[in-house]
């Protein structure tokens, strides 16, 4: 059975989720207080409804109980976001993802029982900051407070050397999980794989190790 989704709040974030889920062929119920937003998404998602998500009865009537994954993407109205999450949790929704405005909002959402809390603006800001600091870092994904995955340009220092020559795991404590070479992606490269200057390396490790690796080898 195909998973069903509901997106509450059709701002930039919720809207983008709706478009992407629909593009992937998923069934999406989209909900917003604002009639214009609902009209905008009517053609994009399976069902678009104008309603207040803080009204428990409305959510019940709309059949939210049968939805596998609900994304609460209400922006500024923290109170509505929390109340919606609480109602969904009490309804027994299996997977609830909520967009948090700040750290306090996140703490409360975790207490209420949100399964996943996301901070799209904060996370995107971090990713872009890392890219701005170093020309070699193309992307950055935070795994935890002190672990990350980064995408770095290999550069001349590593060019022509194999992963054994570079001895990255022993020297820097991080792992090259993939190498992007033009259109190809070499997943889990062999130790004998030779690195080209134009390769893009996907590196995973503790932030301090990844930084050391980037400073010394890139
Ligand atoms: P973003 O920062 O992602 O653009 P916004 O704050 O602009 O988010 O958008 C949030 C959306 O959530 C708005 O379209 C707003 O109408 C909707 N919204 C706010 N409160 C409720 C609610 N109680 N029920 C349904 N939709 C809501």
Automatic annotation (TrEMBL):
One GO biological process term: potassium ion transport
RCK C-terminal domain residues: 135-218
PROSITE patterns assigned: RCK_C, RCK_N
GO molecular function: monoatomic cation transmembrane transporter activity
Protein name: Ktr system potassium uptake protein C
Annotated source species: Halobacillus faecis
Gene: ktrC_1
All residue ranges annotated as the RCK N-terminal domain in the record: 2-118
InterPro entries hit by this protein: NAD(P)-bd_dom_sf, RCK_C, RCK_C_sf, RCK_N, Trk_Ktr_HKT_K-transport
Top-level taxon of the source organism: Bacteria
